[in-house]
Amino acid sequence: VAAILCERQPDSPQGYRLRRHALWQSITSTPQAESDGRTPLAAVSADMVADYQSRLASADMALWQQVEKSVLLAPYWLDGHCLSAQTALRLGYKQVADTIRDEVIRFLERLPQLTGLLFNDRTPFLSEQTKQWLAASPDGKVAPVAQIGEESQAA
After folding, report:
1. Which positions are tagged coiled coil (predicted)?
2. pLDDT in tens, 131-143
3. Helices (DSSP H) in 56-155: which residue ranges?
4. Which pTM value belongs to this model?
């Protein structure tokens, strides 16, 4: 259902909210991690991420669909949601971008330990850029996730 909504109404946040709910609703705990936060999970290919980022300046629907497909395949690639929201903004869909950010914040409020975890190559689940994106709410207030990220780094 989410895929149909996103395809037919890309300007409507409902499909993107539903997609993230379906992606994360069954995740009730964090992945196993070493004492340094490293998990056995593989990071999204650095080449793929670089390709997405290089295409962001001239974002189009094809890029957005590829990023959205990638986040579905890698539920802990939180930077991908930031990239998706940036793409939505470039396409003029601010409400969708805000919804994507809000859903990531909800997920992290449910499992705040994710902010300190790393993929098996030591890439963080949540980069500094993504932490800053999450902290910048539309009303200018700092979102709680920024504080969560700082607490996990201090621990």
Report:
1. none
2. 999 998 665 444 5
3. 61-73, 78-90, 94-110, 128-135, 144-154
4. 0.84
